[in-house]
Amino acid sequence: MLKALRQIIQTMLAQPDFKEALQLMVQHVVDLLQTDACSLYLLDKQRGEYRLVAAQGLNPDAIMKVSVPVHQGLIGWVGEREEPVNLENANQHPQFLSIPLLQEENYKAFLGVPIIYHRRVFGVLIVQQRTANCFDESTEAFLVTLAVQLAPVIASADASGKMAVLLENQHSYTEEARYAGIPGAPGIGIGTGVAIYPLLELDAVPDRKIEDIDAEIHLLEIAFAASRKDVRLLAERISPNLPVEERSLFDVYQRMLDSADLGAEMIHLIRKGNWAPGALRVVIQSHVNRLENSDNIYLRERAIDIKDLGLRILSYLQNNPRHLPNYPEKTILVGEALTAVDLAEVPEGCLVGMVSVKGSRNSHVAILARAMGVPTIMGVENLSVHELNAKEMIIDGYYGQIYVSPMPKLRKKFERLLTEERELNESLEVLRDQPADTADGKHVTLLVNTGLGADVGLALAAGAEGVGLYRTETPFLMRDRFPSGEEQRVIYRQLLASFAPRPVTMRTLDVGGDKVLSYFPVLEENPFLGWRGLRISLDHPEIFLVQLRAMLRASEKYHNLRIMLPMVTDVSEVDEALRLFKKACQEVMTEDVNIKIPAIGVMIEVPSAVSAAGAIAKRVDFLSVGSNDLTQYILAVDRNNARVANLYDALHPAVLRALLQVVESAHQENKPVSICGEIAGDPSAVPLLIAMGFDSLSMNASTLMRTKCVVRKLTMDIAKTLLQEVLMMESAVTIRCHMELALKKLGLEHIIRVGKR
Prior knowledge:
By secondary structure, the protein is α/β, with parallel strands linked by helices. It has 28 helices and 22 strands. The strands form 3 sheets. Strands 7-14-13-9-10-11-12-8 form an 8-stranded mixed beta sheet. A hairpin with a 2-residue loop joins strand 5 (109-117) and strand 6. Helix 6 (213-238) packs antiparallel against helix 8 and helix 18 (541-554) crosses helix 19 (571-589). The longest helix has 26 residues, at 213-238. The chain is globular and about 95 Å long.
């Protein structure tokens, strides 16, 4: 069965014509199941009917001519029930609808299965038999499985416009289509798509015997030198807009080009008789294949960089330097696997967004995009890059949504959102130097989350009172080796100096899960429940101690450092980490460095830590809730997975009760507690967090002023009343609606509207 299913789906995907692909599918089903007829109806939402789009065994003239209203006939009944319907004699069923053109009067047995994707019915798949017997369980199981496999294919066709064209609606490829991906960098971009794809293909380079080996080696060296110059010039052009740590992305390219091993491998093949392009193909493909087959996410993404460099070198070997496209005034780059170099080649001021089919939020290009403030979407499934070239596009980097050839109404909506966001930011400027005090005088400390030096200016401009979370893994992710203690000290000291005397909370190395170091591979079947965060640091004290000492040395004279431990699940981990922390402090103090022992705290981000919050608080100086991970673990929802992201909501009652438990546990031990993550900057959540008693809220710099606006409109009585009301509610949807209504009554409708982005 599985082999047959794969064959059917693969045959469909190989067929460029969508209508022909569907027809091939029903033919395969008839042949495989030895049934008399198979048909497929797709839902036409505009007309409110199911349209026959493919059939085998029925009147072929009925295809594209027969339609069934959504609430009529057995087809409508299957769609309405959203489950299989297996009938012995369909003609006698009260829901049966006779359609003469189909010529199905001789068919008795009927099995209909809904095609559902993300809870939405897209169509109905049917098999029929002349004999009056229900289809057996194996046939029903096969058809249900096929419908599940078919659903994403049809959903993709709907998103790209192919289904609309097939159903003869007004939509077409040139009209509105929507795609979903993973938010890579926040913001809204409206512009014209520019498809980036290589004009050369390494796979197409043949092997060729040569006579002059030295000449071929010389050509390779010239190509390497030209590629180095390209990358250096691009880095010089873009680097003034980037802080030091982000510039290291281009250092990675330079190191790969400077690597003696890479060039030596190619020269070895040239000396064996292959010409330079052939040697380049063999070596680059070898590295790319090794990386792409890795279970390590970060290593797979590094394959993109290797391939990009290989194509750049090949262009010089073939004396065909890369020709850049024409970049419109508002360019949205679209590519299978965009790189930092692709971004750097766009003229200054023209880039308003990026879309990459491959990659994650932690890809090099996504990190760079966040540093530059370019809205970006990564990991977009079922996207055909070339179809988006020169198309008008809107990208929503907050929610990972892409709109191609948007209708005027949609475009006006996003233009209005951009205008509202700009106007709101301007109106909030007057609050920059105002305290984050409630209307009745309760002060709420507002901090920022950061991992990039580029955020410092934004945070200070927004009036941040310090850093609630500095992600120290960012410098580690940007290198191809562990940064030395001195390199870390320099980075940390720059941040501490920028915010002094404001406090800076540095989280110790938090890798694992979707943040994997290329030079420290962790191969696991379930990395999010595996070796990550503090677990790695405790297993490798040589890494942990170097980082702790670098932090301590960086704090010399500033004394504004706070240290936080991530991914804690048990008090024994805290005890061991504190032992190593004391050791690092003693070692640094013997060096006659003028430091003050910093406060050390724990990040509460897993359910077990919520339960143990009181015991943990006894051991440390403060607690801080990592709301993003805590919400994911409580709800068992990966917010970066487009299929289930709609289930992720930090206002879920279970999450709110967990937050309240952490606050109460910390305060019972007279320890302060903060919260960082998206919920801290969510206008609908801010009153609840204040009422719970969080001592500080830490968020992205872009949301800080809006949060301050909400705080200043509140009183503690209002906040506490709202908290008591929502704790009686049973769903996140109800809670969110209740909070939005409450904010509207406070005159904060504009904050809600823009905050939703």
